[in-house]
Design goal:
The protein is α+β, with helices and mostly antiparallel strands. The protein has twelve helices and 23 strands. The protein is globular, with a radius of gyration of 29 Å.
């Protein structure tokens, strides 16, 4: 991978774009007023236990109580329950109780109406290692495939794994020296001691530990992944990044640059244009086919269509080629839009089983570049591919967009004709309920024009039916679905 980070900073917002081989692949946005809290550690207080849901609500100082499921409670608490003679350890009431203080970590930001998701299985990340204070385990990232390298790394960190905590070696540590790993292990232990000191104060309205700000966090997570350049358009943030890299990743100092250019940094590689495209339902494919991506609260659905692509041989080849091209676009859009949860992909139906296998393989290959955990199932009996992608933060659409006040999130408006008929029915209803001499209808220009033109005969029939005059007046500030029937 040939990667470059573009960091755009304003007083209220930081945006980071990951460019791979000249193409935008990921966008990360952090607003100061709504900074994400994933990775933060709190001393939370259990305020309610729900046996029916096998969960508890925990106060960590946010507007909404956070959610802790029994499956996210660390095994040490479960083991403790077993030692005390509890038989049904699956019961949340054997693990926590109201009023109890727990050290918890946020694994999912609050999403919509849902509070943050918590775990008691704490982790603290550095450049090369992830510390697990509740475990003495020594592990190595599965992405490091060389057995001799895995053994070397495990031997280096095993002496640091004891009752104070265990460590997992991150992918970025492949080829790292012993001194660097030891430095990270000692640093993480110091951080954990600081967290322990803060815990003694029993403050539930402040984080015991906060993850790095966006710019430094992205650099930490992507270093070692082929980054060749980091450009930032804020001198202050540039200095902060250099301080961070000086301490943790000095070997990449030379790739960090301050960008003073007159052209906005996100105009490089057409990042702003790509962000706007990522907010649209339709994604054009180079062949002429296209994707339709619909994001709902329950899941994300992706539909593939051949569109204008007619191919050069036969229909089956056209369908296969479109589906193969779609796999690359799907993998990129999932990363770019930060879509997570359940994802249903409706590939164009393929009669050839071998074609199905090759499309699945192509999707796996395209998704292998994604740093977020995912799982792909095979084709279902209905010809759909089901997959999941870990969701920790809000999607790009949820960060940048709000529900449409006109359609209330439906994505569609009632037709002018439909609104006209609603107005006629409303006049009949009001006439039956109240005594009025005449009616005035206030409606959007498109609707008022229709009532005075195409629907004029219906309006005249209604005047005869109720025996009263009806006047229509245009209101420029009304949206297409908005109207008022006023009695005079």
């Amino acid at each position: 991978m040939s990667g470059e980070l573009l960091i755009n900073v304003t007083p209220s917002e930081t945006r980071v774009a990951l460019i791979e081989n000249g193409t935008l692949q990921e966008v990360h946005v952090e607003r100061n007023a709504k900074r994400g809290i994933v990775g933060n550690i709190y001393l939370g207080k259990v305020i309610r236990v729900l046996p029916g849901m096998q969960a508890a609500f925990v106060d960590i100082g946010l507007d909404k109580a956070a959610f802790l499921h029994a499956s996210d409670i660390h095994t040490r608490l479960i083991t403790s329950a077993v030692e005390q003679g509890e038989q049904d350890v699956a019961d949340i009431r054997t693990l926590v109780h109201e009023g109890q203080y727990l050290m918890v970590q946020v694994v999912k930001d609050p999403l919509g109406t849902k509070g943050a998701r918590l775990t008691t299985d704490l982790t603290i990340a550095s450049r090369y290692l992830v510390m697990m204070p509740n475990s003495s385990h020594a592990g190595v990232s599965q992405r490091i495939e060389d057995d001799s390298e895995r053994n070397r790394l495990r031997q280096i960190i095993e002496p640091f794994c004891d009752e104070q905590g265990g460590f997992i070696v991150r992918t970025a540590a492949e080829g790292a020296g012993e001194d660097e790993l030891v430095h990270d292990a000692e640093f993480l232990r110091r951080v954990w001691l600081k967290i322990g000191e803060r815990k003694q104060r029993k403050q539930t309205d402040q984080a015991l530990y906060q993850d790095l700000q966006l710019a430094c966090r992205i650099i930490r997570d992507f270093v070692g992944g082929g980054l060749e350049r980091v450009r930032v358009d804020s001198r202050l943030t540039y200095q902060q990044i250099l301080e961070f890299t000086d301490e943790f990743v000095p070997e990449i100092n030379h790739i960090v640059e301050y960008y003073p250019g007159e052209k906005p940094i996100f105009d490089l590689f057409s990042v702003e244009t790509e962000i706007q495209r990522a907010l649209q339902r339709k994604v054009e494919l180079k062949s002429g086919g296209y994707l339709i991506i619909d994001q709902t609260e329950a899941m994300t659905t992706i539909d593939i269509n051949t569109g204008a692509f007619v191919g050069h041989r036969n229909l089956e080849e056209t369908i296969f080629n479109t589906n193969i091209e779609a796999t690359q676009a799907i993998a990129r859009q999932l990363r770019l839009r930060n879509l997570g949860g359940i994802i249903i992909i409706d590939f164009i139906d393929m009669a050839d089983v071998e074609h199905q296998k090759r499309v699945l393989h192509s999707l796996e290959l395209a998704m292998s570049k994604d740093n977020v955990k995912y799982s792909i199932s095979g084709f279902s009996q209905l010809g759909l591919v089901e997959m999941t992608r870990k969701r920790t933060r809000e999607s790009l659409e949820h960060i940048l967009c709000d529900e449409c006040p006109v359609c209330d999130g439906r994505g569609q408006l009632k037709t002018v004709e439909t609104v006209c008929f609603e107005i006629l029915r409303e006049i009949v209803r009001v006439n039956r309920a109240y005594d009025a001499d005449k009616f005035i209808v206030y409606a959007a220009p498109s609707v008022s024009t229709a009532l005075n033109d195409d629907e004029l005969h219906h309006l005249a029939e209604l005047e005869v039916f109720i025996g009263k005059q009806i006047k229509v007046q245009s209101e420029n500030l009304y949206n297409q679905e908005q109207f008022d029937v006023v009695m005079m």
